[in-house]
């Protein structure tokens, strides 16, 4: 079972409720805490995230991001907070002025998890192994 840790800065000019909503739009089963100017969340479910990447047809981009961030049994990536607020996924390469949502996924069989979340595709269709 994966452990997903999510962290997003909550700047003094931001509404903490909106930052929480951005996280919950991607990971609705998260347990959320506010700590020292940031919002931290944990979950074990990637169901909604998987639905979003399929709906938005970004499976290949997601696979590339998950593989690029992989170190051992952990992978990490960042998504745009404002885009997550409207229920979509947009990956960012570097921290944004308003901050990004940082996601870390840990799993004993990370390669299998990545294959499940963002499988290999050919012409936009998932390839079954």
**CATH homologous superfamily placement:** Ribosomal protein L5
On the 0 to 100 scale, the average pLDDT is 92
Please compute the radius of gyration using only Cα atoms. 14 Å
Number of helices: 5
The biggest beta sheet is recorded as: 7 strands, antiparallel
What is the CATH topology?
50s Ribosomal Protein L5, Chain: A
Considering DSSP H and I runs of 4 or more, what fraction of the residues is helical? 25-40%
Are there runs of 5+ residues with pLDDT below 50, and where?
none
Overall description:
With 129 residues, the chain is an alpha+beta fold. It has one domain (3-122): 50s Ribosomal Protein L5, Chain: A (2-Layer Sandwich), CATH 3.30.1440.10. The protein contains 5 helices and 9 strands. The strands form 2 sheets. Strands 1, 2, 3, 4, 5, 6 and 7 form a 7-stranded antiparallel sheet that branches. A two-stranded antiparallel ribbon has the order 8-9. The longest helix is centred in the first third of the chain and has 11 residues, at 16-26. The protein is globular. The model has no long low-confidence stretch (mean pLDDT 92).
């Amino acid at each position: 079972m994966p452990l997903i840790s999510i962290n997003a800065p909550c700047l003094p000019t931001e509404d903490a409720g909106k930052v929480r909503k951005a996280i919950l739009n991607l990971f609705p089963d998260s347990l959320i805490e506010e700590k020292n100017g940031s919002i931290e969340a944990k979950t074990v479910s990637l169901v909604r995230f998987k639905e979003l990447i399929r709906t938005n047809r970004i499976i290949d981009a997601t696979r590339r991001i998950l593989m690029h961030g992989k170190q051992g049994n952990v992978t990490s990536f960042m998504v745009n907070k404002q885009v997550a607020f409207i229920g979509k996924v947009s990956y960012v390469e570097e921290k944004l002025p308003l901050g990004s949502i940082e996601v870390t996924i840990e799993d004993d069989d990370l390669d299998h998890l990545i294959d499940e979340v963002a499988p290999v595709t050919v012409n936009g269709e998932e390839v079954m192994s």
